[in-house]
Amino acid sequence: NGKGFAPKYSIADKSYDITPSSVTETPFSSVEEQETSEEVQLSMSEFFATYDEWKPLFHHVMSSSNGEDDDDGRATASPPMASSHLADVARPSSSSSDSSSDSSSSSDSLWGISTLEKKTPWRLLESKPTTNSSLEVLSEFLDEWQRSLLDIPLDEIVTGANDAHFMEEGRRVLAVTRFHVLDGAAESATAADSAAVADSAAGSVGEDGDATGKTTYDREWELFRTVWSELAHLTSRDEEDTGSLVLLSPEQKSGGGSGGFGRDLECVREFVERKVLRPIRWLGRGEDWEIVAMERGSIGVRILYKLSDIPDLKERDSGGDENVMF
Q: Alpha carbon of 239 to those of 65, 271, 299: distances in Å?
């Protein structure tokens, strides 16, 4: 930090292990734990009915690591909670019974010609934005993200809490390799020229409009589309320590349309819990993901897939040179 400049971010500005912003708030996960099995089933029924056209994608995410058989042909894990709600999804045809072949066929089907022609609600997205306005939003966010790292006061002796915090934040920065900016103005301008598609969430529309010809831009719907498209993409690649960042443009924080969705961080955090994390847990994949809403100038959703633990340096230092890995 430069001399005379007070840090903008404090040690409390974490982007992991996030707790409610006040003691009066109840974590969404705690609310879910208090629900009866009937209430959970009702929540799942409502979610999968609302996003019925997304079922092939949900099934792909669910089946990528579940339902595999051991050498004796016995199931190695109990079916995920959402299995019964996705039972009507046709499994991709495959000439081999090997689970990896099934997963590959599922991935090929998910990203086939229908997706490329935008006939499905999900999208195969580029790894980074291309418009100047979106690149500016991304650049400002990354600058603030870097500043939040530099504002962490390091300990005199490495192993302290501040150093651990710096490493935890830093490795999450490095894991993100895909970037998206939801620019409502740009998307709305092209919506009228796009082919109409029947979106699964009733009344919501995205960059392509819907079957009724509506072309207004719905931020919550587009955030849902982008986040779940990235979840499926990262699942298909199945590479540890990878991730995506989805940003809301600053204009979208000011409210207007979509009931003012995205105007504050808590609003997006609730979206992440109810529309992303809960369904991910129903699909039996909760342990594979770290998904948080965060704010570094702009508000965004960071998605991390199979984030590895920090190596135990004590174990490394106690071994010989042959145990040291770089």
A: 13, 26, 26
The verdict on pTM exceeding 0.85 is: no
The H or E element spanning position 247 is: strand 242-248
Contacts for 136 with CB less than 8 Å, ≥ 6 apart: none
Average pLDDT, the chain: 77
- Give the DSSP per-residue string, 124-184: ---SS--SHHHHHHHHHHHHHHHHHHHTSPPPSSTTSHHHHHHHHHHHHHHHEEEEEEE-H
Using CA atoms, how far apart are residues 304 and 306, in angstroms rounded to an integer?
7
Short-list 223, 173, 248, 214, CA closest to 16: 173
Strand-strand pairing, 176-182 and 242-248: parallel
Q: Burial, 241: exposed, middle or buried (Cβ in 10 Å; 0-12, 13-18, 19+)?
A: middle
Residue 244 near residue 307, CB atoms below 8 Å = no
Task: Tell me how crowded residue 319 is: count the other CB atoms within 10 A of its CB.
Answer: 9
Handedness of CA 197, 119, 199, 261 (dihedral sign): negative
Question: Which residues in the chain come in under a pLDDT of 70?
Answer: 1-5, 19-33, 65-77, 91-107, 155-159, 184-217, 251-260, 262, 311-326
**Residue 114 phi, psi dihedral angles, 5° rounding:** -60, -40
Tokens of 183: 């620019």
Residue among 239, 244, 243 at smallest CA distance from 223:
244
